[in-house]
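From the shared-data thread, chain only:
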Amino acid sequence: MPNAKLSERFRGFYPVVIDIETSGFDPKLNAILEIAAITLTMDSAGWLEPEQSIQFNVNPFENAILEPTALAFNGIDPTNPLRGAVDEKIALEEIFKTVRTGIKANDCNRAVIVAHNAHFDHSFLMTAAERAGIKRNPFHPFATFDTASLSGLVFGQTVLAKACEVAQIPFDLKQAHSALYDTEKTAILFCEIVNRFKRLGGWPLALTSNE
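Structure, as tokens:
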């Protein structure tokens, strides 16, 4: 498929891989503590690959609930001054700026979140953007690409580490639950799924005849 365009692969959507580490499960009560985003690019032959990454440690918003079990799970200490954390509005505005640049450069019309168990990350991102009063949110308000579901279909596994293992993508459990590390692995996994479908002859779609 010469001169393939990313805008033509996902009906004008610009896929951006996101991972968010939080202080709990409720996007209205619990805080974003880490967020990472990786944009994707498509070469002229139609192969998808990771492109640019951006990551922030984030200060909890005022009166956010920090669940001890969540902090023990992700190993984040929000009070550590060495984190170099920024407020969520700054983090989101920088990520959104990068995403809008990618949308324009690829002739897409809107970004769509790619994430593992995407509803979780999508809900936190949307709630935080609303809380921060950000008007220009480039992401689709409800559509997502969920690599947990896609991995269940393609690899028979829904856990990120296990899906990567089946896909022969190296995965270090000691680095898991870092937003940037999980985003990097999710991006590679998503690209592998999309590219595997292409290698199997599923894309581009063959034209059917009515005869």
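The longest strand covers residues 32-42.
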